[in-house]
Structures are given as structure tokens and as C-alpha cells.
Amino acid sequence: MAGSLTFVLIVPLVLIILIYIIFADQKKKKRREEEGAYQNSDFVELWKLKISAKSAVFAWRLIRDSLPTKSNLRRRQVMLTDTLCPFCKIEEEEATHLFFNCTNILPIWWESLSWVNLTTALPQNPRDHFLQHGIGKDHGKKATRWKCWWIALTRTIWQHRNKIVFQNGSFDGSKLLDDAVLLIWTWVKSMEKDFVVHFNQWSSNLKEGFSN
User: Fold this and answer.
1) What backbone torsions phi and psi does residue 84 show, to the nearest 5 degrees?
2) pTM for the whole thing?
3) Quick one: CA torsion of 192, 211, 148, 200, rounded to 10 degrees?
4) Exposure letters 47-85 (e unless 16+ CB within 10 A, then b)
5) Domain boundaries, the chain
6) Residues of the chain with pLDDT > 90: what percent?
7) How many CB atoms lie within 10 A of CB 93?
8) What pLDDT does 140 receive?
9) Apex CA 59: angle with CA 53 and CA 61, to 5°?
10) CA-to-CA distance for 212 and 210, rounded, in angstroms?
11) Which of 78, 116, 121, 205 sits a CA distance of 20 to 30 A from 181?
12) Structure confidence at residue 72 (pLDDT)
């Protein structure tokens, strides 16, 4: 009799627990879907830019902080002998520092802001930093170039970082900036059929390049 009573009491309890688990899983799944939709709506224009797929994927990985920075590798239990930023060799190499806040990189961002006569505080994470460059606000030629500049500069920063880490190179801010300017010039030349500006003219007057 006691055993039967115990069984009667346990079965409803088990069912309640199972229902709770299922409900909790569904709620988590819905929240993840909503977050994914929110992020995708933010960056839908990223995939519309007429740049190489490799560059777009790079930007997406940076925005999601999924690049193999030393900080991310350390969190994945990868053994490293050095976790410092290869540019300044002072702070740990994580995305926000490497791409935006390093003392060797920040002046390049400030210089590029001067091309569009913009003075503002720069965000402290890749997602907001990217959004500040005009996604969803302006669909004109100037806005498209500005979005592409963010990708061109960050991609060039990563390439120069890799040369230092894997090829024992040294930091050269001027070369980094020149390479980024050349990259966006090739993109603009490919995207805009009426674009006939020679690279030397483009690179010598970047304020005009980002205002037209």
C-alpha cells in the first residue's frame, strides 16, 4: 500500500519536472533565436557590401569576437608563451585592445575620423564600433565607403598583426594605413562604375574621397 502511494506521488512530480525542463529549454531556444535575429538585423547591410566574401566573414567574426586573438585562444585552453599585444607589447591581446584601443592603433582611427570631420568617443567593443560607422542610418555612397573603411582598416590591422606574430615583422603604422587605404580604393573602384579616381589622387585627398 505504501509503495503504491509513493508511486502515485512520484509520477506527478516527475511529470512536473519534465514539463519544467522542456519549458525552460524552449524559452532558452526562443531567446537565442531572438538574439540572433536582433544581431542579423543589425548587420544585414554587411552582407550587401560588394567586397570579398573573405573580408565580410572576417568582419562578422570580429564583430562576434570569434577571431583567434591570444585572449580567445587562452580562454580555449591553448598554451601560449606570450599573450601580449604584438603592437604595443604592454596589454593583453584581446579584440577591443588590438583593433581599437592600442596606443599604436588608436591614432589611426582618430585620423580617419578627421576625414569626415567627426569628433566623437569611440565605442569599446567591436559590435558598437562597427555600428557607429553608419550601418542602417544612411544608404548613400558616402555611408557605404565609410562602412567599407571600417572593414578595410580592421582587416589590415589583422594582417599586420599576423606578420608580426608569424613572420617576426615589426609594427609600421604608416605602412598599415597605406595598405588599408589601398584596399578600400580597390573596393570602391569595383563597387562604383563611375569611379575613375587614380589611387595617388584618392590617397592624397581622403577627406574628398569620403565626402563624395
Assistant:
1) -80, 155
2) 0.80
3) 70
4) eebebeeebbebbbebbeeebebbbeeeeeeeeeeeeeb
5) 1-42, 48-209
6) 59
7) 24
8) 80
9) 100
10) 6
11) 121
12) 95
